[in-house]
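Supplementary Methods. Inverse-folding protocol.

Structures were first reduced to a discrete structure-token string of length 296. This string, shown here, constituted the complete conditioning input.
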């Protein structure tokens, strides 16, 4: 199979490794010659281009599957909405007759529920924050893609919970060890997915003979922030976590607000059943042990 990755970063490189191990050919779009060299060293064929510059996308090859896993680079000078919506549109315009299937990495931020509700693929999407709104608008634009003139778009949106894993804990570990108060409501729910489990879900979704339009990808057990950071602190030998909301110091507590959108609980039952997907790290407990062990 021929695969193309738009956004071959933390998640994309792991998907690429799985496809390469299966004997697939993998290409990836990158804006940087330095990144291109790194991709080549991993057996990935680099293509220099920028999703915000349509004229640079002409070299995108014919492939069986396109994975959009673009993250927003805050230093790029381009808004998150422009990248997620306009950038995706530019890519779809170029690959409409060059690809058979498109997998879009979205986010559970498309859900606006914040009172501890359980949500799944059927839940209403009314995002309250700009990142969620941009992701939702990008999802809706997937309906515009018609590969080879086919009436029904062969697209799948994977709504991922917060990705964590090796090297994705460094800043939090440093904050915990220094006793720095953490922002956010310590009793709000977190929904997480280990990066390796997310990569497995992408591969399984790409290999489905009949694409499904949507999957919510999260681990088996939501966790409140206090429990999550307490477990992380214990693993790295840090003191128990402190939270800015509970700190009596005016310098710390002044202006602190509860983190919005982090108080819902995600169900993964549909993805587990339909993809025959079993997370290697079913909860944060197993995932943190692995992530910390690989990071140290």
């Amino acid at each position: 199979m021929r695969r193309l990755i738009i956004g071959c970063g933390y998640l994309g490189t792991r998907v690429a490794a799985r496809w390469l191990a299966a004997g697939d050919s993998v290409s990836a779009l990158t804006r940087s010659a330095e990144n291109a060299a790194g991709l080549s060293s991993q057996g990935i064929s680099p293509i220099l281009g920028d999703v915000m510059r349509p004229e640079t996308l002409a070299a995108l090859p014919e492939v069986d599957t396109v994975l959009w896993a673009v993250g927003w680079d805050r230093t790029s000078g381009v808004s998150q909405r422009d990248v997620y919506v306009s950038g995706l549109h530019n890519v779809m315009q170029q690959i409409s007759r060059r690809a058979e299937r498109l997998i879009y990495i979205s986010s559970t931020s498309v859900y606006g529920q914040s009172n501890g509700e359980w949500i799944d693929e059927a839940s209403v999407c009314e995002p309250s924050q700009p990142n969620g709104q941009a992701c939702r608008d990008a999802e809706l634009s997937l309906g515009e893609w018609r590969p080879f003139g086919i009436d029904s778009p062969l697209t799948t949106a994977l709504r991922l919970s917060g990705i964590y894993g090796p090297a994705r804990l460094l800043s939090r570990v440093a904050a915990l060890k220094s006793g720095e108060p953490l922002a956010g409501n310590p009793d709000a729910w977190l929904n997480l997915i280990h990066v390796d489990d997310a990569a497995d879900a992408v591969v399984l979704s790409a290999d489905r003979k009949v694409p499904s339009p949507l999957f919510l990808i999260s681990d088996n057990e939501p966790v409140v922030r206090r429990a999550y950071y307490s477990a992380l602190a214990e693993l790295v030998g840090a003191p128990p976590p402190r939270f800015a909301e509970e700190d009596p110091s005016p310098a710390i507590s002044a202006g602190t607000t509860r983190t919005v959108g982090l108080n819902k609980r995600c169900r993964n039952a549909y993805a587990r059943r339909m993809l025959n997907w079993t997370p290697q790290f079913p909860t944060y407990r197993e995932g943190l042990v692995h992530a910390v062990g690989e990071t140290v």
